[in-house]
Write a structure and sequence with these properties.
Blueprint: E1 9-12, H1 17-25, E2 31-37, H2 43-60, E3 64-68, H3 76-93, E4 98-100, H4 105-118, H5 122-125, E5 131-134, E6 137-140, H6 148-154, H7 172-188, H8 192-214, H9 227-237, H10 247-257, E7 263-266, E8 272-276, E9 279-283
Helix pairs in contact: 1-6, 4-7, 4-8, 8-9
Length: 306
């Protein structure tokens, strides 16, 4: 397993075989179990699930915390956002150093394949890293290098909660897990999970290398497909916040940076790119009124809508 920080840890715990296996592996550490009730499966099913989760926590001998969630919709994205907010609040309330999830190599391969099918880049391919920050809180995935069966074996003999939605073909991930990956394994004669995870590792390494280059380089000098990644690395280095720019903003910004003379480009959320004699600089806020930008050779730079 990947190393964990010292101190109290909060494990997102559904009572299912994955989180049960990770909880069993972490017995002896200062771990709190966090059960989040989304109330998506009806009153009776939720009541049965809560009882099963309490029985699993008792069998593990670990303290259990519970939060009731009410996401805006039953979509996966809405439920995930609600989970992150609740876990952050619980971790801060109980003095936890990090939140843990029981993601495995199989989960990572499923995520990478889903993103490939929907269209993605380096950011999407570098899915589920061992450590990240979610909603401002350290998040660790200690078992992301292990296979799902190996993690579940750690909790063998303990009462596990069965989540029927994991088998429902109404969800894209369940279709990838139950239909697509087994079909690839059968027809290709090889397990696709290691190769997909290796692709994720490569994407993460390339992205980290680009970020290091971006801190001292000119993004406009990069090949066009890499330009957005260098821009986002420069934004993070400058302390800018917010989601990545739209495709239209990237295109307009690239044209501005490739131009000549001094000037300024006002991007989304008031961020300002300034091109001067000393090179290109980015300020997270609007260009100061005391230093109005000059027009440069190409005239006033465009101001795209975010």
């Amino acid at each position: 397993m990947h190393p964990l920080p010292e101190g109290r840890l909060l494990l997102a715990f559904s009572g299912g075989p994955d989180s049960l296996g990770l909880a069993a592996a972490l017995r002896g550490r200062d771990v709190l179990l966090a059960y989040l009730d989304h109330r998506l499966r009806g009153t009776r099913a939720s009541r049965h699930e809560r009882a099963a989760v309490r029985a699993a926590a008792r069998a593990l001998g670990l303290p259990l915390l519970r939060a009731r969630l009410a996401p805006a919709t039953a979509s996966e994205a809405s439920a995930r956002a609600a989970r992150h907010g609740a876990l952050r609040a619980m971790a801060r309330r109980h003095g936890c150093a990090a939140v843990l999830t029981a993601h495995t190599a199989d989960d990572r391969a499923e995520t990478i394949l889903l993103r490939l099918l929907r269209g993605t880049g380096l950011r999407g391919l570098a899915a589920l890293p061992p450590r990240a920050r979610v909603a401002g809180l350290p998040l660790c995935r200690p078992a992301v290098g292990e296979r799902r069966d190996a993690l579940r074996a750690r909790g063998a003999g303990l009462p596990a909660v069965e989540d029927r939605t994991n088998r429902s073909t109404a969800y894209a991930r369940a279709r990838v897990r139950g239909l697509l990956l087994p079909a690839l394994r059968e027809h290709l004669g090889a397990d696709p999970v290691p190769g997909l995870c290796a692709l994720g590792d490569l994407a993460a390494a390339v992205r980290a290398s680009l970020e290091r280059c971006a801190r001292g380089g000119d993004p406009a000098a990069a090949p066009a497909p890499l330009f957005p990644y260098l821009v986002e690395a420069r934004r993070r280095a400058a302390g800018a916040a917010g989601a990545p720019y739209s495709a239209a903003v990237y295109e307009a910004l690239r044209a501005f940076l490739a131009g000549r003379g001094e000037g300024a480009f006002r991007a989304a959320r008031g961020e300002t790119w300034v091109r001067g004699r000393g090179g290109v600089a980015l300020t997270p806020g609007p260009c100061p009124a005391s230093r109005p930008p000059s027009r440069g050779a190409g005239g006033t730079p465009p101001r795209p809508r975010p």
